[in-house]
Amino acid sequence: MGGGGWLRESGRYNVSSMERAQHNFVVVTADVAAVRQRLDREAASPRQDFIELARALNATILSFSDVARGSAFTRWLGRWGGPALALAWLAFRGRGTFYFVTAENTAIPLAFLLKFRRGASLAFIGHRITTPAKSRLLRGLRLFRQVRRMFCYSRQQEQFAQAVLAVPPEKVQRVAFQVDEQFFTPAEVEGPGVGVVSVGRELRDYPTLFQAMAATQVPVTVVASSPWSRREDQTAGRAIPANVTLRKGLSSVELRELYRQAAVVVVPLQNVDWPAGVTSLFEAQACGRPVVISASEGIQDSLEPGTVVMVPCGDAAALRAAVLRLLAQPAEAAAMGRAGRAAVLRACTLDQFVARISAGCAGGDRKE
Q1: Which residue intervals of the chain bear CATH 3.40.50.2000?
Q2: Over residues 139-162, mean pLDDT
Q3: For residue 29, is pLDDT > 80?
Q4: Tens digits of per-residue pLDDT, 275-317?
Q5: Among the ranges 60-64, 66-70, 263-267, which has the highest mean pLDDT value?
Q6: Region for 195 from its dihedrals, namely left if φ exceeds 0, alpha if ψ lies in -120 to 50, beta otherwise
Q7: CA–CA dist 6, 17 (Å, integer)
Q8: Which residues share a beta bridge with 197?
Q9: Terminal CA-to-CA distance of the chain, rounded, Å?
Q10: Is the whole-model pTM more than 0.85?
Q11: Closest CA to 263 of 332, 330, 344
């Protein structure tokens, strides 16, 4: 990495001084310090996409953690306008010439600030630019003039950028999400597994999962937590069926083992226009497990035919039938698990993701 940011040493991530930074910044809309603390407690963990991107781009990493170490004005800005605005200001003041921003909440104010500096540009991941507030800012302030490339994970976001925001097609690139397939791997001795596992918090529909499985004797384990999502826990304050166990605070290794031991992984989703649920989808597939997933509009670009069973959002009867069918057909479930792992290896590995983002930032080939 060029100058500062995070380095990986002996399997641990360490923060080094920001003062030696030269030009490039990777601006991360996550609490890097919290991620570091979590990973440092673990004997093994998946590689982190923002660290691999920083290496590939020869960049320094900035995150919410750095705001607390900023100037008094930066800290005040965080209290007044929120951490994304403060982080954008901190990045702008760092005099970078190119910025890669992992979410639009920080990219939008940074793009505005870069209007006042020549020779600087940015690329960012547009997770969900279709909200009214974001689209008004992006269009009204003509912020895409400062943007070299916007990456997005779903066709809905890509089409909205071009059709509604009038972004030139060469500035929009749809890419596949990623998983560290070297960490999330099938069990050494594969078997049919036991019960249902469901993981994640972002826009999950756990009430429908509970309704689907309550009348069965199938054990269900739900991990309604996420290091990134601040959404409300959809299991909180609800009656939990007797066959459902809630877990939290799992290490990366424990999570991997939970996937490996599952007969079926279920990703129950609300219907949204961006790929909520894609992280647990790819983690389960990388572990070679069969997946039943709600057919949310935003997730469908991340699905390869034959690698999952899709059911309508909110349809408990269809979800129950799909799970029971896979439990009754272990050969079909195993074949689906192998197909899912193969799909991940073809197009959704962490290294492939880093290569695509790096090429896009450099104005390289836009093809998948």
Answers
A1: 196-347
A2: 95
A3: no
A4: 999 999 999 999 999 999 999 999 999 999 999 999 999 999 9
A5: 263-267
A6: left
A7: 9
A8: 221, 265
A9: 26
A10: yes
A11: 330
**Cα separation, 225 vs 356, whole angstroms:** 29
Q: Among 3.90.79.10, 3.40.50.300, 3.40.190.10, 3.40.50.2000, what is the CATH number of 196-347?
A: 3.40.50.2000
Burial class (CB in 10 A: 0-12, 13-18, 19+), 217: exposed
Query: The tokens of 326 are what?
Result: 């896979």
Structure tokens given for 345: 């290896």
CATH topology classification for 5-177+350-361? Rossmann fold (3.40.50)
Distance CA(92)–CA(90), nearest Å, equals 5
Distance CA 108, CA 143 (A): 7
Using DSSP's 3-state secondary structure scheme, residue 104 falls into helix
Per-residue pLDDT tens over the stretch 231-254: 566 666 778 999 999 998 899 999
Alpha-carbon gap, residue 173 to 3, rounded angstroms: 29
User: What tokens does 298 get?
Assistant: 């935003």
The label of the residue with tokens 């349809």 reads 315
CA 178 – CA 48 distance, rounded (Å): 10
| Mean per-residue pLDDT, 130-145 | 95
Burial of 42 per CB tally in 10 Å (0-12, 13-18, 19+): middle
Could you give the strand order of the β-sheet that contains 172-174, starting from the edge strand earlier in sequence?
60-63, 25-28, 98-101, 121-125, 147-152, 172-174
d(CA 360, CA 173): 8
- Cα-based angle 221, 227, 229 (whole degrees, multiple of 5): 90
